[in-house]
Amino acid sequence: MPSNRIVLLLQEQGSDLVAQLPASEVDRWLARTPTWPGVEGIDLSITLGTYRQTATAPLRPGQPATFTFTNPPAGEAELSAIAYRGSTTLAQGKGSLTLSARSGSSGSVNRPPQDTERQRRLSMLVLSEVGVPLLHTSSAAPTLGQPLLLSGENLERVETVLFAAAANPERILRGEIRSRSGDRLVVMPPSSLSGSVWVAVADASGQGLGTLVYDWPAATPSPSPSPTPTAPAASAWVVETLLDGRTSPAADPVGNAPDNTGTESRIYLQQISGIAVDPEGAFYLADRAQHRIFRLSPEGELEVWAGTGQAGRRDGAANQAQFDSPQGLLWDPKGGLWVADSGNHCLRYINLQRQVSTFAGTCIAGYRDGGLDRAQFREPSGLALGSDGSLYVADRANRRIRRITPAGEVTTVAGTGQPGFADGPAEQAQLLQPTALAVDKEGNLWIADGHRLRRLSAGGRVTTLSGAEPGYRDGPLAEARFQTLGGLAFDAAGNLWVADRDNHRIRRLQPGGQVSTLAGQNQPGWQDGPTSAARFEQPAGLVVLADGSVVVVDAGLPGLRRISRVASGPVTPTPGGSL
Predict the structure, then answer these.
(1) Residue 329 and residue 284: Cα distance in Å, rounded?
(2) What is the maximum span of the chain, computed from C-alpha positions, in angstroms?
(3) What angle is formed at CA 548 by the lines to CA 544 and CA 550, rounded to 5 degrees?
(4) Within the chain, how many helices (H) and strands (E) appear?
(5) Residue 137: which of 155, 157, 160 has the closest Cα?
(6) Higher model confidence: residue 225 or residue 39?
(7) Are 496 and 516 in contact (CB under 8 A)?
(8) d(CA 482, CA 562)
(9) Distance of CA 278 to the CA centre of its chain
(10) H-run or E-run covering 24
(11) 118's torsion region: left (phi>0), alpha (psi -120 to 50) or beta?
């Protein structure tokens, strides 16, 4: 079936509530594939007490569908949907919806005209293929900062809990499982959620075990922390935009134009998930949404470097090769680019002649050590290179760290495969969601594992070094808190740079063990200038350049930002745009 999240624009019109399904959503549900017959219609229903109304709208290609509900009462209502073809129900789903009093309805409050925009909001609904159960929660809305209790069936099999907000449905966040049983699941949600939120749970194989959608309370911004003793050093750095992916299109190789005319097309970045840099200063970007690898030349020219834009697995010439949700990237000092092809569960390689090959893995999800062509991975993510030439892989969904020796043998160096945070000998330690990796001068491997910063020592022990709870706090590493760690990278002085994704900040761990914030604010955004005023939104991967500057993937743009030292003189904050 198509991506099963549908985003609705809700607008109050007098006493009525109008839900609009955008034309792009309509086209997706109408489209037929070899495994999906396409729907003929979608019915939406609102139920609150004795009130129940079903709205039907014709689905026409290229046109939005509008569903009108007459005078629904205020309160917590159930929003449900059925997608059908003929007399067959293909998918269904339901969630919660908070209805406020409207002008013209009982108990309404007269609103001034300027409040019209505030009556417009997004809601999201998940339609699952018939047979996927619906989850339930113990309360109408979650409590911010508190675990969420879900009930359903077969929840002891849950390995993954995903969250997405209607305002940004392509940004998928993961929750931390606290406990589970057959009919109960306790999970700590990500902190940066608001509005209509989709929740889905799945087992180790990716099979859906339940879905739920309901309204999430808005977070109250917390005050910025008092400056730490390291704050004056932050004023010596400045943030600038290297690439605005919204306004800088990439040239696509001839022959990959979407209209098949063979002419050059222009493509914009969507979801940058990985970054690497070569010795000449060119940057390589993995766009998991477009299944492509992009290259930004030292002169600032952006082009599609590999991938057709269609999810798949095909080796060969770069403009004909296919990837599936590529994540981590790493430049090979011998010349070439490693790609963690997460959706294909293997590692790929692009050589200097722009030929793509499968480097390691069978490209079938699983877990197996051995030779390059026999080993199996499950959603590989971050990559790092050891001083001996070994390639380390964050095997995210297998909850393990893998090592590929220079001789081509794949071994497991940490993780039992069971989710958790148990420290100790590497073969007994537990990992939850290892994503990014970095190797220090002593040969220790640093691991971004959810909101915890962990280290695999050269002697083979895993230790959790940062605070155990998610949050935001500078200071000694043992007391520091992070929220969804992104990229990791060491500079020549031994500082570890950290992209603190959901705190929208760039942090730095000094060799002495102090964590400080170099850039970013409580509120996400896009603003250049001195780091004390600069803003980021969902910083992800990062790389340290030879001159000591740091280039950050700002996934919320999407684009690239550079943090570098100021030569002299004050710098005026420069808004790069509004988000």
Answers:
(1) 8
(2) 75
(3) 40
(4) 2, 49
(5) 155
(6) 39
(7) no
(8) 21
(9) 25
(10) helix 23-30
(11) alpha
Nearest-angstrom CA–CA distance, 151 and 128: 17
Q: Which of 358, 399, 357 has its CA nearest to residue 378?
A: 399
Q: What's the mean pLDDT in 15-31?
A: 81
| 221-257 pLDDT per residue, tens | 444 444 433 333 334 799 999 999 888 888 776 445 4
Decide: helix, strand or coil at residue 294: strand
Handedness of CA 39, 40, 46, 51 (dihedral sign): negative
Q: At 306, list the tokens.
A: 């590999």
How does pLDDT run across 379-434, given as a tens digit for each residue?
999 999 999 999 999 999 999 999 999 999 999 999 999 999 999 999 999 999 99
Structure tokens at 402: 């893998």
The DSSP secondary-structure symbol of 110 reads -
> In a 3-state reduction of DSSP, which class is residue 503?
helix
Of 75, 67, 70, 69, the residue nearest 100 (C-alpha): 75
By residue count, the chain amounts to 579
Measured distance CA(453)–CA(478) in Å, rounded: 10
Long-range contacts: 170-177, Cβ < 8 Å, 24+?
170/270, 170/271, 170/289, 171/538, 171/555, 173/484, 173/502, 174/433, 174/450, 175/148, 175/199, 176/432, 176/450, 176/451, 176/470, 177/419
